[in-house]
Specification:
CATH topology: Pectate Lyase C-like
Radius of gyration: 16 Å
Number of helices: 2
Largest sheet: 2 strands, antiparallel
Distance between the termini: 35 Å
CATH architecture: 3 Solenoid
Number of domains: 1
Number of strands: 2
Order of helices and strands: HEEH
Shape: elongated
Length: 191
Amino acid sequence: MGLLGILKGGNFRSPQSIRHKGKKLSEILEAHARFARGDSSGARADLSGANLSRADLGKANLAYANLAGAKLEGANLRDARLASADLSNAAAARADLRKADLTEASLAGADLTEAHLGGAEVFRADLRGAKLRGANLGATNFRNAALQGADLRGACMRTTILRETDLQGVDLSGLDLSTTLLPRDYKAGLP
């Protein structure tokens, strides 16, 4: 299924139908919601290495969750709360992360090829070495994010916010930056 089909909501897997380490994903999410509220009966979601491809996690509260190395290809994470979550080395190609809150999340080494992050909050997130090839980053806020070594080839940067972001070592050549909000001291052609 192409990106258009994914973004229209087709063919997602329900959290009720996904199991990880012997538990239903829906049960893990419920326990995590209690954890996030400070309820002692809750538990932090450990979804490291989980197969969540094409999972419907729209609006899910996954703040502080461990999703390191998770397979999230084509997953719906639109409007999801992922603040301070560990998504390092996650495989999230073509995932829908529109308007997701990724504040202070770790996405180091994550594969976000052709992902849709339009309007996402990626403030102070760690994207070192992340693959963002062909990703839609329109209106995404990358203020104070760590982007060193990130691959942005072919990414859509329409109205992307890169103010207060250290772009040293980041190759933005070949990208349309005409509406991108760049750091005041940024010099085009000098990665």
